[in-house]
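Summary for the steering committee. The consortium agreed at its last meeting that each partner would contribute one worked example illustrating the joint modelling workflow. Our contribution is presented below. We chose a case with several input lines so that the handling of multiple components could be demonstrated. No manual editing was applied between input and output; the record is shown as generated.
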Amino acid sequence: MKTLKLLPDLPMVIPFMIRLQHIFKEYETEDEKLIVLNDINLEIKKGEFTSIIGPSGSGKSTLMHLLGMLDRPSRGKISINDKDVSKFDDNEISKMRNRFVGFVFQQFNLIPKLSVIENISLPAIYGRTNVAYDPKNKAKELLKRFGILDKANALPNKLSGGQQQRVAIARALIMNPNLILADEPTGNLDTKNGNTILDLLGELNKKDKITVVLVTHEADVAKRTKRQIKIVDGRII
Amino acid sequence: MTYIIFLIRSSIDDFRRNKIRTFLTSLGILIGVSSVVLLIAFGLGLKQYIKGQFESLGTNLILVVPGKILQGGSLRAGPGGGSLGGAQFDEKDVASLEKARHLRSVAPAFIKTVTVSYSSTAEVGDLFASTEDIIPVWNLEIESGRLIRKTDISKRSKVAMLGPQIAEKLFTDKEISVGKTIKIEGQAFKVIGLLKSKGGSSGGQNFDSFIYIPYKSAYTFNPKKTFFALYTKSMTENDINEAKQEISTILTKRYDEGDFSVLEQKEVLNAINSIFSMLNTILVMIGAISLLVGGIGIMNIMYVTVVERTHEIGIRRAIGATKSDILYQFLAESIILSLIGGISALILSFFVVLVIQRFFPAYIDLLSVIIALVVSSFIGIVFGVFPARKAANLSPIEAIRYE
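What follows is the complete predicted structure of the assembly.
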């Protein structure tokens, strides 16, 4: 396996930056060409707390998937720390996702058959032995910090929505990521729980210096971030 | 290492959640592997039994039979009577072979199914006509009375030794048979000896039901005066080759070289080996069909599992699982599923063989155990790799959107 120069032992030393240049994402159906993202140019700097806001169908989730390397653009260049992502094969991209990105989804996306602690530790298993700490201990620390340590061995369906989303954030944090991508993280939560989650994401940005990108359709949510990127019909406006 | 444990643990966790499905899927493999293992066990048992029979005949045994049986170590026709064509041995051959320097003994053998009676009881039995030299060859032992002697042959005495099974059929108490006169195809023979049991039969010849008489006394039943085989023994184990050469030289004076076969024990054992490896191959192929069906069952269920778990695959990919991680996970499942079937099959076969051993000398050897484990892992890989590849090649984004 090729060693990834992108994976330094001390991620904080290298300023993290993701740059999108002339990004297009198109889908072709039988009778029409659907342009989901139309010439997106965007830079996200290390330590930023950014939101991508737009109505549903605007392409904001697709943009988030591209930032998180879950998907590839139809055209254009994505670079992370000045390295062209399109040059990486699936294996390398998977490793990048594992080490650099933490996802938080609207649907929480925990694996229902795994306990809370197993869900949180799973990225460390896929990261093999590349972490210097014990994933189980780190998972417990995170649960303690989020006030749900007593749920460590419970299955996700025994948890409330707010608790599940905190577990998902803990999972996103287990590999010490540079970037957290949160796709409508409050979409399935009531206001109170939603606010807790948003506070938590703010704290991670401020205290832990993690770059956070928040995707939302709610202006109130977007307001909490320093920078807002508005997207309509696949274009940044 | 932790990664392998992780794969095994997640597979087992999944089986726990789908107990019935797991059971039914591995049942297919269980049946397949059991049939292969049991068929091998039967084949081996039968082979061991027959080999044992021949091995007990001693290493200096040389069997002379009509026809060409062995050619270059492979088998062309089964050993049998004169029906094979070729030479029809008679007393002249016995006489000329008896003069051979390297031969200790020559026992001609003639077998015929006959009706044998005592007072009002009549039975069907196998007449085995030979000389006293057949006694050490077959390892015959006397229970009561005496064995056939050389003088019985030369005098053409109408005497018979009875196997315990036929004796039991003719006489209510087999112990009283010695000294009685029985009738073989209407001719009176005096029972001089009762033989000890040589143990069960296995579809082949049953020594216990034979009626042994001097071969010259059997000429009325054998008007052509021919023999189906000549059992000879070399002087020592070391001059077997010379003995065989001598037999061939003597017999080629009368017959063509292709009309008879001179087989030492080793060659008889080789012949048995080649018959049974052929038989085993056929049996294993039959068993393999059910294994194939079991494998298809695994493949089918794995495809269903992949579809069911598409969303989960998407999540795993999002948090950093590579294609290989997903491939290994599903492959581990199909292999373990198949191994569960294979190991259960071994346990089941072990007990079945334990029971069967009361009637039949079947046994499971280490090779069957290895075959069972290797074959079931192999099936897990072969039939699991396609569903696993399908899972691994799912696009992460489409998988995570799948509900």
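The interface with chain B takes residues 65, 68, 70-71, 90-91, 94-95, 97-99, 103, 105, 109-111, 113, 122-123, 125-128, 171, 175 of chain A (CB under 8 Å). The beta strands of chain A are 17-28, 33-45, 49-53, 75-80, 83-84, 101-104, 179-183, 211-216, 227-232, 235-236.
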